[in-house]
Amino acid sequence: MDLFEDPQPQQGNQPEYTVSELSGAVKRMIEGEFGLVRVRGEIGRVSRPSSGHMYFDLKDDRSVIAAVSWKGQVARMQVRPEEGMEVVATGRMTTFPGQSKYQLIVEDVAPAGAGALMAMLEKRRAALQAEGLFDPARKKPVPYLPGVIGVVTSPSGAVIRDILHRLRDRFPRHVLIWPVAVQGEKCAAEVAAAILGFNAIEPGGPVPRPDLLIVARGGGSLEDLWGFNEEIVVRAAAASRIPLISAVGHETDTTLIDFAADRRAPTPTAAAEMAVPVRLDLLAAVDGFGARLSRAMAQGAERRRVRLSDLGRALPRLDMLLGGPGQRFDAAVQRLGGALGLMVTRKRGAYEARAGRLRPEALRALIAGRAERLQVLTARADTGMERRQERSHAGLDKWASRLAPALARLLSGAKTQIARDRDRLGVLASRLETAPAQRLARATERLDGLERMRKTLGYQATLARGYAVVRAGGAVITSAELAREAAALEIEFRDGRVTTGPGTSVAPSAEGPLRTPRKPRPREEGPDQGSLF
């Protein structure tokens, strides 16, 4: 291009370019000369703004190239650039005219060898371990016999078939499969979303919530298993509320999800074996427990029977226990017959003795005597009642004769008292009618007297008798010395005020006191306390 060639001596007039034209020419030359290139270097100064683009530097021991990856390119990267990594970046060279610099548009980044990947992996593992994501105290126990098992893996690989086959052989369970990509750029996001999705299932809903999760993948290279080393997958596994078994790769393969999971299985088949026990072994164990229970019950019953027999031999015999009481009972029976006959004879004698005293003639005599006594008492009672009634009538007549004059006097006195009370009530009523008017008249008279006293004691009345109030500058003058010092005096008479002094004429003043150039010393007396003369 002539633009970058040295000018010919014979060309005297060179063409002029604008800044944009020159920048565009440089951009076209660089993009045409360097198309798709692969650059090896160390990553430095990584920046991830909110726009989603990524800005970083590629450097070696002598030079630095600015690099940028757009949002879509960052999402497709299998390995995210981190500061300090040695990578091989694939992209296209271009310029940025706004800052007059060239840069590399990076489409993909690959670690520069397994050593770089392992270094980055170890660095990430140390950072996550420092946060406590791999702490053994956070790990949850795996249920002995889960009802529902969730499997996060690819639905088309041999891994899911091995897991289902192993579960079917050992102990068939209900299995939920969440299909994900197990390698590539979508692996990490889909695995993390699957773990979070299983945890988001509500218990008792239309879809059963798993009691155990298995994240499984077959073996592969470090690059193939890199999705399970991503930070998003590790954090999702550590935050899972459902116990999780990691079965990624073969026994020699180790990924970061193995450290965050609750259990690590060397293979997916081993994960299925960890998840459920062998059903036949459980049945055999149950049968064994049943046989042991039967034998234990039989042995326990036999031991108790022997113990009871031993205790029975230590007890006395029945005939020895009942011999003495039986003999005493027989003796009591023999004595009971004679005692009953003796008791009957004794009771019969007592009855006959009482029956002799209770003959009919004796009863009739007793009744006749009691009847005569009752008649005598009745006659005496009638006589006593008549005498008591006569005495009561006599006493009542005596009290009646005494009470008649007193009752008459009492009635006469009551009438006289009522008449006096009626006259007194009339007098009080007339006084009540005239009292308000009299009290009002006295109050009016007292108020008039106070008003006259106020007018007599006020200083205006004193002014009417020929006195005056002298002021200077608004203050009352009470001595001749103050009057001589004042520049102007204001004198208040009964009908107005006048001002005297140099340059002032004596004239009535209807306004207030006039200002003077010189104020006398202030006084605390008010207008009503001024000097009168």
Automatic annotation (TrEMBL):
Annotated OB-fold nucleic acid binding domain residues: 17-109
Primary localisation category: cytoplasm
Subcellular location: Cytoplasm
Domain Exonuclease VII large subunit C-terminal: 133-404
Single GO MF descriptor: exodeoxyribonuclease VII activity
Reactions catalysed according to its record: Exonucleolytic cleavage in either 5'- to 3'- or 3'- to 5'-direction to yield nucleoside 5'-phosphates
CDD domains assigned: ExoVII_LU_OBF (cd04489)
Keyword Nuclease appears in the UniProt entry: yes
InterPro entries reported in the protein's UniProt record: Exonuc_VII_L, Exonuc_VII_lsu_C, OB-fold_nuc-bd_dom
Entry's EC annotation: 3.1.11.6
Positions of the UniProt region annotated as Disordered: 497-533
Top enzyme category: hydrolase
This protein's GO CC annotations: cytoplasm; exodeoxyribonuclease VII complex
Alphabetical GO biological process terms: DNA catabolic process
Keywords in alphabetical order: Cytoplasm, Exonuclease, Hydrolase, Nuclease
Task of the protein: Bidirectionally degrades single-stranded DNA into large acid-insoluble oligonucleotides, which are then degraded further into small acid-soluble oligonucleotides.
Protein family: Belongs to the XseA family.
NCBIfam families the record matches: xseA
Complexes and interactors: Heterooligomer composed of large and small subunits.
HAMAP family named among the record's database cross-references: Exonuc_7_L
Protein name per its UniProtKB record: Exodeoxyribonuclease 7 large subunit
Organism this protein belongs to: Gemmobacter caeni
Source taxonomy: Bacteria, Pseudomonadati, Pseudomonadota, Alphaproteobacteria, Rhodobacterales
